[in-house]
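Reading is simple: the token line describes the chain's fold. The lines below illustrate.

. . .
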Amino acid sequence: MSGATAPGAAADSQPGARDGRERLLWVLALATFVIFFQAFMVAPVIPQLSAAFGASAERIGLIVPAYLIPYGIATLAYGLLADRIGIRTLMFASLAAFAVLTALTATAHSVTALAAWRVLTGLGASGVVPLALVLVGGMFPYEQRGRPLGWLFGAMAGGMAFGSTFGAVLEPFVGWRGLFLIVGAAGLGVLLLLMPHRGFLDARPRQAAGTLGGLIRGYRDLLGTRRGRRTYGYVLLNSVFHSGVFTWLGVYFERRYHLGPIGIGLALLGYGVPGFLFGPAIGRAADRLGRGRLLPVGLGLGAFAAAALILGLPLLAAAVAVTVLSLGYDMTQPLFAGIVTALGGKRPGQAMGLNVFLLFIGFGLGSLVFGEVLRFSFGTALGVFAAVELAAAVAAVALFQSELPSGTAETISRMRKAAR
């Protein structure tokens, strides 16, 4: 199993090339963190936005899918454009759009305007993360991608957790408009940090522009193999699970423990801890042991955490369960992304665009499905989601058994042939 040839990996023998590659990885992780921070800082300030605009919380709540759904759809276009015109222009344009449109959201004086700015921001910002994942697939050979992908997905989880926490904590001091202005300025800062790395962004070869038929064949090829179908299927299923549970945890802590916005934010803070602390280590373990061995464990941890929340645990134990839930995410989605980087072949942008598209569509569907099941009770919703995730964990033992380091896979194959 081998991925795309790296622009940065090819230059590893040159002085400073590896250091430059590592610095770029840190900047990409920072960009990912800021974008996910912005995406998830909105939910905890919905009550404040409701009061500011004189609208119901349900109406204000629509600004969350107003961002996520366009974001997911637009990732498909960015991935395809990256294959045709290169990464640098798209990366800078998308990050600049994120910074400017996030800041302009602070000018909204109606719910309609606020939702419109969120739609535009989702469309503009959605190029950064999939292109960052494509870059990692190019800069690192397949057997070394676990650690850098761990950093990027750890940044995603950290952005989700810190956005949920500090959106609630900072709003009383700076106001909701101040939140958007601060994050817009942070996006501009990341753009400036990215400028010195233009050489790495330019190094990726461009693919020839294709026809509509070629585009369809590309998706057919990606989904035409068992490896592709099972990987993309699990990306969608796992994102539905994690988004469904995580999106409604604020309501869970409010109803079960009677916490206010700041208390809820602090209870959710543990969701990003495993990604920050253990993301690279998980990635190294995946490279060394094989993704097929870690994926069932990660899926099982997610199911266990959701099931534990049914039990009415003490508040501290429930917060620990949230941290375990995050560990389950960090042991699955980065590993799936690593497999996707090996599926793309000559169309890495299209492959990763499809991955992020399914990831964000899953985020949206998970929230909606969990909310519908929640009509019965929290215990029912958590139980259904935990049962489906547990079944996925059991099935993954067989479905991903071939996702082992090349040497290990060859050894197992020889042993099986000898046993026949």
Q: What stands out?
A: The radius of gyration is 21 Å. Residues 18-419 form a domain with the Growth Hormone; Chain: A; fold (CATH 1.20.1250.20). The chain has one domain: 18-419.
